[in-house]
Amino acid sequence: MKKSELIERVSQKIEILTKKQIETIIDMIFDCMKEALSKGEKIEMRGFANFKIKQRPERTARNPKTGEKIKVPPQRAIHFKMSKALKDALNK
């Protein structure tokens, strides 16, 4: 689903708001999520999922084309864990 499709679906369910207002709200939600994750906070959406940042350590990898060993620097990654309700909805 693209962001424009999400805006369209929400606008069909909430007819009192314009698409521009809905887009602004969705952008604000995403911005709040980005800000929280960048601070290292956990996001918990009950009935949907949890998002948290995990630190990946530095590691040595191999270029598959040349076989050359390269160092991959440490980095932060988002860990997504779906809730039981979402898992049940997907697997019914």
UniProtKB/TrEMBL annotation:
InterPro entries noted in UniProt: Hist_DNA-bd (IPR000119), Histone-like_DNA-bd_CS (IPR020816), IHF-like_DNA-bd_dom_sf (IPR010992)
Keywords tagged on the record: DNA condensation, DNA-binding
Record GO terms (molecular function): DNA binding; structural constituent of chromatin
Domain of life: Bacteria
Membrane spanning residue stretches: none
GO biological process: chromosome condensation
GO-annotated cellular components: cytosol
Family, similarity comment: Belongs to the bacterial histone-like protein family.
Name this protein carries in UniProt: Integration host factor subunit beta
Origin species: Thermodesulfovibrio aggregans
